[in-house]
Amino acid sequence: MKNIPTDSLRTLVTVVEVGGFAKAGELLGLSQPAVSLQIKRLEELLGRKLFKKQGQRQILNHQGEQLLPLAKQMLKDNDAILQLFSNETITGKVRLGIPSEFAASILPAIIGDFVSLYPDVSLEVKSELSKQLMHVSNRDEFDLVLTLVEQLDNPHYPSFLQDDLVWVGNTPAKLTEPVTLVVAPQGCIYRRRAIEALEQAGVSWRIVYTNADLTGLTAAIKEQLGVTVLARKTVPEELPYTANSDVLPALGQVGISLIKRGQESLQAIDKLAEFITLRLS
């Protein structure tokens, strides 16, 4: 019976998350040839190629896409087992910045699980719009920033995950009057993408409600004040959504990036970054 080495799986996942062999090597403390060798050995073990060339980049092929979620699950289980039986204590304080919609939807469960596994790590979480989280004035405020990126192949902020943008709320069956929008303030990626898509499609619109907090937007949508745009993963369970409306234009995708601030490589920061990327993916 063959066994798959977890270091090869971790290398595969890292290459995909950071968007390249060289960057993965920097993160893992390996040379680029060493990263390539680990991927080659994994391909030989499985008897399948996992990457294909797209321009100057190597991206996952169909077999690689099939392997990726299984590899992430194996790494998650591996790390959970090691943590359960390890005498090593991870301590420290991590300042995490996250978009407000993530703070209200999917992050609480992830953060709760992390705190249960690493009770000696103190987390300080602050939620704002991605634009504010990334503003130069906040550069020293966070150790990690989870942020939305519109450019999916951004070399400075590589996406470890891409998600569909969807219309949230009761979408109209036909357009007899302007689309009413409930949105976050200026600077919000969702707001900008909604307006750009509507204007490019020649659909009139008007903003009837503005709130930076997802809870406030959710309440407005429940009252049927209008529709909004969110990444599919962040849509509250109680709200209807659609990515393929007959009357509203397609919105495309958005990237999700996890950015480490500063040069420090504290174990608590690295562990939280790995935990979030594995769980969100």
UniProtKB/TrEMBL annotation:
Pfam families for this protein: HTH_1 (PF00126), LysR_substrate (PF03466)
Top-rank lineage group of the source organism: Bacteria
A GO molecular-function descriptor: DNA-binding transcription factor activity
Annotated keywords: DNA-binding, Transcription, Transcription regulation
InterPro entries given in the database record: LTTR, LysR_HTH_N, LysR_subst-bd, WH-like_DNA-bd_sf, WH_DNA-bd_sf
Alphabetical list of Gene3D superfamilies matching this protein: Periplasmic binding protein-like II, Winged helix-like DNA-binding domain superfamily/Winged helix DNA-binding domain
Record-annotated HTH lysR-type domain positions: 4-61
Annotated TM spans: none
PROSITE patterns: HTH_LYSR
SUPFAM superfamilies linked to this entry: Periplasmic binding protein-like II (SSF53850), Winged helix' DNA-binding domain (SSF46785)
Record-stated family: Belongs to the LysR transcriptional regulatory family.
Name recorded for this polypeptide: LysR family transcriptional regulator
Organism the protein comes from: Pseudoalteromonas ruthenica
